[in-house]
Design a protein that fits this description.
Layout: H1 7-15, H2 23-34, E1 38-42, H3 49-59, E2 64-68, H4 75-79, E3 80-85, E4 90-95, E5 102-106, H5 113-125, E6 127-130, E7 133-136, E8 142-147, H6 160-163, E9 166-171, H7 177-188, H8 201-212, H9 218-230, H10 234-237, E10 241-243, H11 247-263, H12 271-282, E11 287-288, H13 290-294, H14 299-309
Length: 313
């Protein structure tokens, strides 16, 4: 179906030379890349989120920048600024770390609103504005943001408008006992592990075009619609939701399902693809009522109930 579709499995295998387990994380990063959009990674520190992104960048021959978000971060620390050159007697633009293919926004919820606004332009428009000029970002451009849900001191909740700009929200899991042993073993022998550069930006662009051609039947379109509409129904959610999924959720659920089908070697979407991608696509787009949070209801539980109630026609 695609000239180079099998290369994607080779990419995953190469990344797994370094990363142990975390199959959902690796899959979701690749899906976000092929969808040309961004991903939010959540859970505790020390689970190899940074290492995973860096490894992907190396295997994919892409540039990589890591930005540690802090409460005193300024927009210029992210996008750059106009700096006066006394010798030339003029201002020149010095670009910031956002001018890379992979941007790891580490602990994104620690930065104030001005920084989030600057990042939002980059995420939505693939450009940044410095002074009175706009500068396009590299292609592909992808923000991989991490947030730690445990620590709340000196953090800022991401606005819903920004959350909606992330294609997926992936929960990074703790390793199993066997994986923990493998992590320690590989760390002792990490000097012997050599990564190959398997693909480049031009080939990624070609693969993105192939993903767009994956076939979607009418019943799959209706299934995606019904899932998103179910978030707006009190019957399906037991009134647990404060905010419902927007039409963007339908678009991204469809696109993510097409990409998953492509990764699995198919040129058509199955209902199982939609069900699998519903969790990372919807979990940050539906906001729980305070009462539901107090009762320890999770967004994944709401999504599971929706999927059990919505049938394929």
């Amino acid at each position: 179906m695609s000239i180079d579709q099998s290369i994607l499995q080779e990419v995953l295998s190469e990344v797994k030379k370094i990363i142990v387990g975390q199959d959902d994380l690796l899959r979701d990063i690749l899906i976000s890349l092929l969808c040309e959009w961004h991903i939010l990674l959540e859970w505790a520190p020390g689970l190899a989120k940074t290492l995973t992104v860096n490894t992907f960048a190396e295997v994919l021959s892409l540039s990589f920048s890591r930005i540690q978000f802090t409460p005193d971060l300024l927009p210029s620390d992210l996008i750059g600024a106009r700096v006066y050159d006394p010798e030339a007697k003029k201002f020149e633009v010095r670009k910031g770390p956002v001018f890379a293919n992979f941007i790891l926004a580490d602990e994104i919820n620690r930065a104030p609103s001005k920084v989030q606004s600057a990042l939002l332009e980059a995420m939505e428009e693939s450009q940044v504005t410095i002074g009175d000029k706009s500068f396009p970002l590299k292609k592909p451009f992808m923000v991989l943001a991490t947030q730690n849900p445990i620590e709340q001191e000196w953090t800022f909740s991401l606005p819903e408008a920004q959350l909606d700009r992330f294609l997926l929200k992936t929960i990074v899991k703790y390793p199993t006992p066997a994986e923990e042993l493998e992590i320690m073993s590989r760390d002792m022998n990490k000097a012997q592990i050599k990564l190959s550069k398997l693909i480049n930006a031009k080939q990624i662009s070609d693969l993105q075009l192939w993903v767009a051609d994956v076939h979607v039947s009418e019943n799959i379109l209706e299934y995606v619609r019904d899932i998103v509409f179910a978030t707006r129904s009190s019957d399906a959610t037991d009134s647990a939701l404060l905010y419902w999924a927007s039409p963007r959720a339908s678009l991204w659920l469809l696109r993510a399902s097409k990409t998953l089908a492509y990764l699995q070697g198919r040129d058509f979407v199955l209902p199982e693809d939609v069900k699998e991608m519903a969790y990372p696509v919807l979990r940050h787009r539906i906001i729980l009522q305070f009462e539901a949070i107090a009762n320890e209801v999770t967004t994944d539980q709401v999504i599971a109930k929706i999927l059990s109630s919505v049938k394929v026609k």
